[in-house]
Amino acid sequence: METTRTNKSVLVRGLKIMAISLVMMFAGPTLFYIATTNKEKPLYIPLLIVSLLICAGAVFFAFKGLQTIMDSMFNNKPNSN
């Protein structure tokens, strides 16, 4: 029985997705804080919407990145022999 190895190209792609998620995890709450402290500004609603979309995107990219990393390690595709 042959042991499977980690697919390095898929692992790198997953780590890149996780890096995007990390940036969004800091940008979303920062923009949310800026939006909620300036309620009298005219860009309050658009900035609030953008910050919430960035926060949701961070969660999506985190799950997508973890799924890609797990696929690189535990890929169960049959060999093409």
Describe this structure in words.
The chain has helices spanning 8-37, 44-73. With 81 residues, the protein is an all-alpha fold. It has a domain at 27-71. Helix 1 (8-37) runs antiparallel to helix 2 (44-73).
Radius of gyration, whole Å: 19 Å
Quick check: average pLDDT? 88
Q: Report the major sheet.
A: none
Uncertain stretches:
none
Summing up helix and strand content along with how strands pair, one would put the structural category as mainly alpha
Summarize the model shown.
The protein is built from 2 helices and no strands. The protein has 81 residues and is mostly helical.
Present the secondary structure layout.
Blueprint: H1 8-37, H2 44-73
Helix pairs in contact: 1-2
Entry keywords:
81 residues, mainly alpha, single chain, 2 helices
